[in-house]
Each structure stands twice: as structure tokens, then as C-alpha cells.
Amino acid sequence: MSKPEISFLSRNEIEAIHKASLQVLESTGIKVMSDKALDVLKGAGAKVDYEKNHATIPQSLVEEALRRAPKTIKYCARNPKYDFVLNKQETHFCATGGPPFIMDEETGERRYSTSEDLARCSVIADYLDHVDLIWPLGAGGDVPAPIRYIVDMYTGLRNSEKHFEGDSTSAKEAQYQIEIAAAIVGGREELRKRPIFSMVICIISPLRYDKGMTEASIELGKAGIPVVIFPMPAAGETGPATLAGTMVVNNAEFLGGLVMQEFASSGAPVVYAAGVGTVDFRTGSGISSPGGSLMHLGLNQLAHYYNLPSEIGITGGTVSKLLDTQAGYEKARTIITHLLTTPDIALGLGGLERARIISPEALVIDNEIIDYALRFAQGFEVNDETLAVDVIHKVGPGGIFLGEKHTLKHFRERWMSRLSDIDSFETWEKKGSKSIDKMAHEKVKEILATHKPEPIPEDVEKEISGILQRAEAELVHKG
Fold it and tell me: Beta partners for 239?
């Protein structure tokens, strides 16, 4: 099978980035705002300064952490038919995570998202065949901040049978999230066997680890929950102006987090993530650019170099604020190019404005782009059957192949659009002259009217309700 693929950094270049990252960790060090995490580093053999919240990590600890980290991770779901394995063999697609705004499907206007929006978008993601897992499609702005991520997780799991990926900002928050998931799967030991959720832990670039998220990650790792260590340096702002330099910051931040996870709980499942970006130096705002894509592709090569599962950010992202031509070409080029490096998880579906807006219609359109991209990435066979010399000879000059058995055998291999317009102008006009965003809007309405994910059993809902009440009492009222 001839398959297109991208691998542009040489082995020497990858090793140079790795060695530079080790030098940063050992010489420059990292700022860790958690005494608990600093205790882990000190116990492992790192040099720690508690007064300055600073640690330097020797190369030997990084190498040991890389040995301890699992090379494959199973992501499970409420419905086992949606389980999958991160094994560097195929890409799984994740809906965009936590945007504060939504493009209202009725008015088309940008507004703050709510828990109801998150629930509706989760139903849409549950329906779409190329969305394998969901990060909250919106932000429950109507929920008190101390329990927002707990409620977001429950809302996502309740309205989708697929794997949930979310956020956790404190050890206590993580404990409640673990408790909810354990209630769904039948206990903590079962959850360790079947982790139906994973959590993203963001690094504050450059080289700073937040107290709450770091302690949440340690709590999650001990429970066997996959943790996605997600650096987000921007070239020229929170990373060097050079692409290679920003990649070093991303890689060093990941390796620092990996050391903390593996020495807190050996064998903790960890996913290598890249959320690097580029900016408009006139305004400081993030932009979609060739540089951002190149860094993502290169960092995915680094994940493969370490033989670790990977998640690459904003692969379906766009800076555009509308479902327009810019959104289309930015999404298509990033999805296709990133798919050719085979990250385990590609993140960013359904987002606009660099994932600050969730659009239900964009989610549907992205699913169509992925369908095309997956067929493109398959390549094609070259053998006696596909070369079809006998058929060409039989049909001969001036003939037609439509009636041949060979055509009947192979025509279903051809990709066919499920959403995009492929009709003649006259047929398109008779069907109502619909644009792609109009087609997507109609599909959104159809999904919401007809698709019903399997509900969580009533007794489990009752148990989770009690967990949420305790979380609110402890984190909102006492906090």
C-alpha cells in the first residue's frame, strides 16, 4: 500500500532538540508552585529550592521517567464499542476543548456558552462517526467556578457514550471527578482497568507548573487516569522567536511534567502533547501559520522518538470567527497535514477563533473534512488487479468502463461526499441553492432531533447527584 506521510526532521535534528531540552531542565530548571510536587522531585534526586519554588532535573531522572511511562494507553468509553488504544498506528479525533463562546445555531451570533450548550454539542459529537472523544464543547459559564470542571465532565459523560477528556485544576476537584467516573463504571478498580476519562494538564509557559493542576495530575495518575501534559508556548512570546527554540520549551515542559508523574506513581499513563503557537507581533494575538503546523509536526516526531502516545493541539483550528472560506482552508490544510504524521489524538474539531468559539456547524463540517482526509491518508494499492491492464485491453480505445465487472467490484472504494455539494448547478438550484453552512445547520437540527445517547442508569444518576451536592458544599460554600 502506497501511503502519503510526513516526516521532515532528521534523526540528528530530533536528538538535538532532545539534548537541548535536557540542558534546559538541568541548567535553567523549572518553577513548580506545589510543595507536594517539589517533594516528589526531591525524593527522586532533583535539586529543589522550596523558597523559590524551583527545581533542576538531571538527565538520569528524565531517562528513568521515559522508561517508566507506558508506551500504549487504552482509552475506554461508557460504551465499550467506542474504546480505542493509543499505539501510534492511527489517529483519533477529539472535539475542541473548553471554548468560552459558542456560535449560536439559531442566531449565528457569538455568545458565552452554557452547560446546556455543552450537553447539546456532546450529543452532536456522540453522533459523528469521526469524533472519537470529546473535550467539553463549551464552558459551563452558568456553573459556579469551583465545580465547573466537575459538572462539565458529568455533562459530557451523560450526553455521550464516548471517552471524555477534560480539565482538572486541583487535587480535590480530581478526587470528585474520579468518584463520578468510578460510579459510572462500577468502582475504582474497574475505573483503573477502564478509564472512561482523561485529563489535560496545561503548563504555564515558559517552564512554570501551576499548583492546582500539578497536584490534580498526581492524584489522577495514582488512580490510573491518563494525563495529557499540554505545554502551550507561543513563539516570540512565551517561547523563543525561532521555531526550534519554542519546540525545546514545549519538549522540556513535557519532560518536566513526565518526571513528576512517573516518580509520583510509576507507570502512570501520560500522553505527550503539543499546543505550540505563533503570534501576530503587531498585536500579540495568536495566528494560524505554517510555523505553527511545522512545530506540531516536528513535536509529534519527538513523541514517536520517545515511543509515547501523542496529542497534537488545534489540528482542526482556525483563526476565523465565521464559517467562511478562511475557516475552510485553514481547517482542511491542518487536518490533512497533521494526519499524515499519525498523532494518536488530533484535537480541535468544531472550533473557531483558535478554539475560543465552538460552532456545532463547524463540528459537522470538520467531520466531513476528516472523512476526506482519512481516505487521502490511505493511499492506494498498486498490483495486477489495480493496474487493470486486462480490463483496459478489453474495453479498448474509445470504450467505456462503467459496465465492467472490475468497475462494479471497485467503485465503492471511491470517496463520496456526505455533506458537501457535488451536484450540477441546475440540480443544486432545484435543491434550494444551499451553502455548506446551511447544509451543516440542517444536519445539526436533524442530529439533535433524532440522536439519543444511551442514558446513565437511574441509580448511578442518583449516586452522582449526591457526589455533586458534596462537591458544591465543600468547594463552593465552604471554599
Answer: 235
Closest-CA residue to 293 (of 281, 305, 277):
277
**Cα–Cα nearest to 316, from 282, 298, 343:** 343
Cβ neighbours around 198 below 10 Å, total:
25
**Structural domains present in the chain:** 65-378 (3.20.20.480), 384-413 (no CATH)
Q: Give the distance, in angstroms, between the CA of residue 109 and the centroid of all CA atoms in the same chain.
A: 26
Nearest to residue 153, comparing CAs of 70, 220, 69?
220
Written as one letter, the residue type at 104 is D
From residue 360, give the alpha-carbon distance in Å to each of 109, 110, 121: 12, 12, 6
Buried b (16+ CB within 10 A) or exposed e, 245-276: bbbbbbbbbbbbbbbbbbbbbeebbbbbbbbb
Per-residue pLDDT tens for 136-163?
888 888 999 999 999 999 999 999 999 9
Cα dihedral sign for 477, 153, 276, 30?
Answer: positive
In degrees and rounded to multiples of 5, residue 429 shows phi and psi of -65, -40
The C-alpha angle with vertex 378 and arms to 372 and 383, in degrees rounded to 5, equals 130
The amino acid present at 83, given as its one-letter code, is D
What are the cell numbers at 11?
534523526
Cβ atoms < 10 Å from Cβ of 279 = 20
Q: What are the 10-residue block averages of pLDDT along the chain, 479 residues in total?
A: 78 98 98 98 98 98 98 98 96 89 89 94 97 89 93 96 97 98 98 98 97 98 98 94 96 98 98 90 77 91 97 78 89 87 92 89 94 90 95 96 94 88 92 93 96 97 98 90
Per this entry, what is the length of the chain? Answer: 479
Q: Which residue has the cell 494499492?
A: 381
